[in-house]
Amino acid sequence: MASLSAVSEELAEIDGQISDIFRALSNGFQKLEKIKDSNRRSRQLEELTEKMRECKRLIKEFDREVKDLDYKNDPDTNKMLNEKKQSLIKELNSYVALKKQYASNLENKRVDLFEGPGEGFTEDNVLLASNMTNQQLMDNGNHMMDETDQAIDRAKKVVHETIDVGTETAAALKSQTEQMSRIVNELDSIHFSIKKASQLVKEIGRQVATDRCIMALLFLIVVGVIAIIIVKIVNPNNKDIRDIPGLAPPAPTRKLLWSSSCGRL
Questions:
Q1: Where are the beta strands (DSSP E) in the chain?
Q2: What is the pLDDT of residues 156-166, one digit of tens each?
Q3: What topology does CATH give the domain 4-131?
Q4: 10 Cβ contact partners less than 8 Å away, ≥ 6 residues apart
Q5: Closest Cα partner for 126 from 87, 100, 75, 170?
Q6: All structural domains of the chain with their residue ranges
Q7: Please, which residues have CB within 8 angstroms of residue 51's CB and are 6 or more apart in sequence?
Q8: CA distances from 181 to 64, 169, 175, 177 (A)
Q9: What's the pTM value of the predicted model, to 2 decimals?
């Protein structure tokens, strides 16, 4: 059989603390038997009651840890842990009964030192099954069934709420998906427009470059013509530019032969 330390270090630690309290309770009740003064007995009983409260809290922690590990352990280990828990409860209840016996023997009967209903685990619905009557077992079973039904109702409510939230989330996701699809289409349109604009800019750039070349050529032609005119004005007898149309000097006038013949006559 596996030890508590092999199952859980926390369980082993809690069990060690409970064992220390049980030893302190045993020594405390032995000491209580030797005390004759009622006031000292009452103070000693209060101290023992505080230790039993602490032991009760530790057993509850032990039980919670056992329930948390229930799905991890094999059936034999779970059986061992439950038996260990029941033995702790039984031992605590024995000290509770002993405390009640000493409290009833005090001349000044004090009010029950445990706060709230029940001492140990008697009223915590964790009585040993062997100590229960058939009616108690049936009542306890009915109570557990009622609690189970309530838990199922709460679970159903949570499931319905989860379904509603899931439906709303699905609708929101669908709307967002449609919105994203529209955004993607708009981005595609923008990309196409940018591409067309880029092509248009390139065509305009080529046209501007062509126009600039033409303008530069016309400018050179105009400059050349102006230069030739200036040279002709400055040096009209320059033979290099006589053959240029419009810039050559006028041809000398020639007399017709018949007019000269007439003059001789």
A1: none
A2: 888 888 898 88
A3: Methane Monooxygenase Hydroxylase; Chain G, domain 1 (1.20.58)
A4: 65
A5: 87
A6: 4-131
A7: 21, 24, 25, 28
A8: 52, 18, 10, 6
A9: 0.41
